[in-house]
């Protein structure tokens, strides 16, 4: 994926990307102009009338490649094994730290204690969804907890935050306030015609549904178009490893290619912890490289019981 050159201020390159610190926001204007969010929107729209067309056999070829890897994994696990749902944490993490084992293939246990970075990530993502949907955020901690209270699987996290002492809650609220400030500066206001939708979930079944590649776009805009890249995606990282966040976004681009037959037109990555961002085009060779990586990881998982 070829990074689009960004303005207004460049920082040192890492992993082939130009990292951008947008600096203090300029005065607001029509169409988000004069601000970092205006630049993000402009980069997403740039050359939108010249959206690329991809080989119609691309998605089928990528799927066939992954089917081979998934088939080997299913054969090793046995036909009576439960369907295996795999996400970016297992598929993209370093093999030495994410070594396949019986434990990693089992269902994750419920937990009541969460690392602070995980808590922040859940809460910031909830605020991002609110910001995109309503355009505003009140008290960050209260709004985030209210939003997560509607999720059936977040009760443990809410209880964890409820047990924090006063100092920890104050620090958490300050962190959320800082990060939502960056998101206000970075996140464009999308017109209804862009069809913005948050938490767009992808599930790509392989090997007859016995292996499922899973992921979530934080924000997807546009509608699929036959034979043409037409979607734009924005992904959020709240202070985790930048390189992993970028790789996870490429992984989602591959899943979207398998879902609708075409890759997204453009990808954006926003870092709410420091206010940097990058916009990228999508190219076929990077989708193939990601598919190759997944086949290799599936092969490692196939040997997990050895």
Detailed description of the structure:
This protein has a domain at about 115-185. It has 10 helices and 6 strands, in the order ααβααααααβββαββα. It has helices at about 35-45, 60-75, 90, 100-105, 115-135, 140-150, 155-160, 165-185, 240-260, 285-300; strands spanning about 85, 195-205, 210-220, 230-235, 265-270, 275-280. A hairpin with a 4-residue loop joins strand 2 (about 195-205) and strand 3. The chain is globular and about 55 Å long. The protein starts with about 35 loop residues before the first helix and ends with a helix. Residues about 1-35 and about 95-110 have low confidence and may be disordered.
The dominant shape is globular
Give the tally of β-strands.
6
State the low-pLDDT regions, or none: 1-33, 97-109
The secondary-structure class comes to alpha/beta
H/E series: HHEHHHHHHEEEHEEH
Helix content: 40-55%
Distance between the termini: 36 Å
Sheet with most strands: 6 strands, mixed
Number of helices: 10
On the 0 to 100 scale, the average pLDDT is 83
Strand share of the residues?
5-15%
Structural Rg: 20 Å
